[in-house]
Amino acid sequence: MKNQSSRRIGRIKSMFILPAVIVSMMVLAGALIMSFVRPDERVAWLGAALASVPLPLIVGRIKWMQVARTSDHLPILLFVSATGVMAAVWEVFVESTSGWWPLSAALASAALFALYTFWYSTFGRYDNPRLGVGSKLPEFELPDYQGRLHRSADLIGNPAVLLFYRGNWCPLCMAQISEIAARYGEFVDLGINVWLISPQPDEMSRVLAERYDVPFAFLVDRDNELANELSIDQPNGVPAGIARDYPPDTVMPTLVVTGPSGTIVFSDQTDNYRVRPEPDVFLAILRRSGAVAR
Hints:
two-stranded antiparallel ribbon; 48% helix; single chain; 11 helices; alpha/beta
């Protein structure tokens, strides 16, 4: 029952983001045009335009500027959206210089951004005690994109970072991997194994491995089997119309750090796909725990 509900919610979310961005951009363009066509309602239409800016802006920033993380609730953009709505409200109810269309457009845009911030961006998950500090990962084996098997037992004796990422289609995941890859020499010097795990097709993992050419393991969790076992799978989590070459199910971004004994010393189970830990955080924890050379 729970799985069916997760799939239904995931399906709805997968169909949300692309139309929401398109609608916001159409409102922005239309409001700017109307601000010139209807000079008597210019302030109200500019308010509607302002209210429609945040969603395309944050999605565009994530996609094109290689951003690895954002704030949780995007307070500055929420303020911008609210300011646009208030401008339209003022013109309708105080100045009485505008009709209802600018206010309706502003409210619709603000509602889409609020849905993106507080609903679409979150998974509604709770920390899994199986991935908590002091626990140990279950035994598992996964192939890399070349078919070579990697077993969890291989990690014993050295610290390890396991990053479960959604796929090459996810700009935040790619930016997070880029951060880690940029510091691969540090990971190697400290004896840290890095496993990057995704349910995406082998070919996509091969492309990623060739892009960075670092001594990490690029593993494929076929059919999300390990993610399901760890309860970090995201049914229908791939956005419709954005990532057509990927299976619909993916994984919630999760980072697990283990010490030489295989015990988890750090776990990030974010409930917001835009919030990710910086490498300095888990490197510092590994050093403090004595798991790596200082």
